[in-house]
Automatic annotation (TrEMBL):
PANTHER family: 50S/60S RIBOSOMAL PROTEIN L16, LARGE RIBOSOMAL SUBUNIT PROTEIN UL16M. The lineage of its organism: Eukaryota, Sar, Stramenopiles, Ochrophyta, PX clade. PROSITE patterns: RIBOSOMAL_L16_2. InterPro entries: Ribosomal_uL16 (IPR047873), Ribosomal_uL16_bact-type (IPR000114), Ribosomal_uL16_CS (IPR020798), Ribosomal_uL16_dom (IPR016180), Ribosomal_uL16_sf (IPR036920). GO terms for biological process: mitochondrial translation. This is Ribosomal protein L16. Gene3D superfamilies: Ribosomal protein L10e/L16. NCBIfam families: rplP_bact.
Length: 137
């Protein structure tokens, strides 16, 4: 099941140009056993990539602990059919993407020990098309 907004202000948006800059948001990790997956570069993630990483992490930790997804794909990307001729308006919404800035926290995993949490986040990071860092409190 893909992640997408229930309702948006406009059906179709302009295509995003350029990548976002460095994030200034800071998440304070208050739990005792808390792990964070932090993006080291700016990129776009679509809802399928986020869902694949989430499923992989949940499978590795055997659905224990709590996993928070701190990003949400809210930018619609439209695409016309490959055999469509020019004109006749903009294409249908094909997929949704989230804008990720360098230094932004993507996933938080807490309530689980280090020997299960770190390998789970490593396997989830392999599903993402950007460099990430695993931060442990």
């Amino acid at each position: 099941m893909t992640i997408q907004p229930k309702k948006t202000k406009y059906r179709k948006y302009f295509k995003p140009r350029g990548l976002p800059n460095i994030s200034t948001k800071v998440h304070k990790l208050t739990e005792l056993t808390c792990f964070a997956l932090i993006a080291m570069e700016s990129n776009y993630l679509n809802s399928r990539q986020i869902e694949a990483a989430r499923q992989n992490i949940r499978r590795k930790v055997k659905r224990e602990g709590k996993l928070e997804i701190l990003i949400f794909p809210d930018i619609a990307i439209s695409r016309k059919a490959s055999a469509a001729r020019m004109g006749k308006g903009k294409g249908k919404v094909d997929h949704w993407i989230a804008s990720i800035t360098a230094g932004q926290t993507v996933f938080l995993l807490y309530g689980i020990d280090a020997e299960q949490g770190i390998p789970a986040l490593h396997s989830g990071a392999n599903k993402l098309p950007l460099k990430v860092k695993i931060y442990q409190l």
